[in-house]
Amino acid sequence: MAEQRAADPHSGAYYQKERRKYSAEEEAKLERQHFWRIIDAFRSYRFHVHEQVKRAERQFRSLSQRHQRVLPGVLSNLARVRQCAEHNQEILDAVVHNSLHMFENVEYGEREDPRKARPSTTFDMDKLKSTIKQFVRDWSEAGQAERDSCYKPIIQEIQRLFPSDQYDVSKVSVLIPGAGLGRLAWEIARLGYSCQGNEWSFFMLFSSNFVLNRCEEENSLTLYPWIHQFSNNKKSSDQTRPIRFPDVNPQSLPLNTDFSMVAGDFVEVYSELECWNCVATCFFIDTANNVLEYVDTIWKILKPGGVWINLGPLLYHFENIANELSIELSYEDIRTAMLKYGFIFEVEKESMQTTYTENECSMLRYVYDCVFFVARKPTLHFNGQEEEDLQQNCPPAAKSSRREGSNRLT
Ligand SMILES: C[S@@+](CC[C@H](N)C(=O)[O-])C[C@H]1O[C@@H](n2cnc3c(N)ncnc32)[C@H](O)[C@@H]1O
Known about the structure:
It is built from 14 helices and eleven strands. By secondary structure, it is α/β, with parallel strands linked by helices.
């Protein structure tokens, strides 16, 4: 990645980074390698958890017999964790099985040389464990309260702004960038709106493809999402408690529903101007290297009169990540920039408390004090020159060719 310090010492130290430029062939090769790396992570999950369990067993066995005897249940709980991991692996294998040919327009071929498979990194394993928790948030009864706090306010605004008695809602187009496992997009489509989710991570794409296209029977599948948490358990059984999914049949959308998921980087995929009535972002805008790029894209792709609905914190995903641009703006700064673009704030709440893939039995729980807003792109735009200036002064952020985001809680 090109990375240079500013030439002018008085301008302050900053980094100017350019997008990596690869030939189409190199790009395809990197994408293929990345695809197989994530498949490997899914497949090596069991091994990774077993190593963790083995370590915990070793530690316990290193205690004196006297100490071991006062805790007769520890080893059997660890054995249970191992069993749960076996079960999770079966689900992950099913996800992988259904992912190998999931893209309509891309095939990733066979792995060049299976012996080249390297052990998965802790980083990829952490992403996989977060993805398992995302099943709770999006597709289990246990996630209902969290969905009510995060998705419901967005859905209610869409219904208020585009009520079905005044609009043909099938013609109201809603885009959900960073759609995760797709539940928010699916719920909006279920209400009859034309809804598209966009997602970039293969972890999420493989998993959402599995739930949306391969699961039918309600609560027929089981995951053990909390077995990776060895600290902050009140009861040992909290670690091994199951969740069932999907809490609804994802295939129950009416036949003529316009619902789709599109893979790729939001900024790169959505370049067509003025075609969306609504863009809804939930726990998304802080995934940007430069959040102004998202503001810019949303401004361009919204129809005049269209709305941007946002709910989320500003836990910048690239903060402190080596070799990555990370512009960490306050909400105040983002708001100022949005006003300059011409957005008009219609609803604004600066304190909406939500959780994200929360383990409700844990002794450590995070609350996000989120910002929620509805901002409209006006029908008649006031100042063309200003917009042009904004666009010229907003270069694209630097990017690695493929990334799975950082190792953040969200
Ligand atoms: C914190 S998660 C939120 C997921 C979902 N909206 C929710 O509320 O559960 C952010 C999601 O955005 C995705 N993402 C990050 N950068 C993206 C990009 N440039 N284009 C599309 N998706 C992206 C991540 O892979 C991740 O699934």
